[in-house]
């Protein structure tokens, strides 16, 4: 009963934080980490601790699956080289650097323990970083690299984490054996993920016009995939990522529009709660962690945590810039036709943004909490609380320092997006309108007379003319190095919002009066909701309600 009360308290805190975030415009990940720190020192709250295995099972599959389902395979393939360099090579290099730092800075930190800490803090939470930079006009290639890295680096770090935990338990570690096992685990995990992914695709195709079942099945998918992979002793992490990517690729074919809307809302709510719950959970455990840090003092661990945070930040900056320099040398030697793109004036600025976007977040925190309490022989896992505290310091420093300075950095650098989202949306609309006109003229399956065909085409012809003019105007502005002005809300759209507001208030009034049955009123309310959604989509992005 006490645990249930604490869970209700955490949910209430998260709702309150959401309201604060909307008003203060502070990035939500930063609010979470600060709230977790503050809540941990409220004396009336009990210590709520979950079993490490439960933490890993509850949090990891949905977080990884959600990230994978939002990832574009087209963009990942186009940028696979920088993504794989950051998500695999840099993760292992960061793990090693942090391990070396911890081993020599902190007395009593054996190599296996140092590598556990390194694996925990090595993957940046680029999804949190992109949420911080949302609406700041970040280069689209930069966003794609950060999101792709965030997906794959979690898998790399979690596999390294598993090997480090095993090394602590057994006391030995053979590199070539670990490398061979890594390949087997990775390949097996991807295979299981692909198989389960296509199984769930098949299942969704058999479901017609049932958004509730579709949504429920997506909630089940990551857990089934993870448990199946772990049962056959391959990487459950990579299995979930592979399954999520399959669903991302196939979702336009298998989901109806109402299933997509319902599923996205449910998943956004779930991920919001999971992110918030894990930060509050670490806060509730902080007093116990601080009291049980063994032979270390709190001050010494905080100082060492700052040094390790600095190491993780510097390693990423150096690695990213060295990678850019190496690629420039290769392009000079090969003499590629796109060499001029390498010397673009904004290149180093975008590279610096990628290098600075090293905020650690939810995956690192959940991984730290998942460290076993006891080892196989029944003895306590050594330095567990010290590792968790050090990981929290790194997360706090990178989120607050890099997270708060990232928007300012982008504004100071004045990085311009390579392609305007507004222009690309118009180009897509023009392509659809042109293809529709061709379809009506040459492939329309119904026999219609000339006046009806003319009437059918008129809307798309007018739309195509307007879009063509706007695209040409925007391209000229970009060529002249001028920002594309925001499209103001039209008087007609403002009038439609006023009518919608009146109709919404009228429905509320009729509901209170009981003049019509609830069934009829709810149907009218649903129709009004759909119309409001259509109106919201026509608003500029920063003004949209939904």
Would you mind describing this structure in some detail?
With about 550 residues, this protein is mainly α. It has three domains: about 1-415, Na+/H+ antiporter like fold (Up-down Bundle); about 420-485; about 490-545. Helix content is about 80%, strand content about 0%. The chain is built from 21 helices and no strands. The chain has helices at about 1-25, 30-40, 50-70, 75-80, 80-105, 110-120, 125-130, 140-170, 175-205, 210-230, 235-255, 255-290, 300-335, 340, 345-355, 360-370, 385-415, 420-440, 450-480, 490-515, 520-535. Helix 2 (about 30-40) packs antiparallel against helix 17, helix 3 runs antiparallel to helix 12 (about 255-290) and helix 6 packs antiparallel against helix 8. The radius of gyration is 26 Å and the shape is globular. Residues about 330-345 and about 540-545 have low confidence and may be disordered.
Shape type: globular
Q: Which sheet architecture does the biggest sheet show?
A: none
Order of helices and strands: HHHHHHHHHHHHHHHHHHHHH
Mean pLDDT, rounded to whole units? Answer: 80
The name of the CATH architecture of the largest domain is: Up-down Bundle
Termini, distance in Å?
Answer: 37 Å
- Please tell me how large the radius of gyration is: 26 Å
Q: Specify the structural class.
A: mainly alpha
Number of helices: 21
User: What count of structural domains?
Assistant: 3
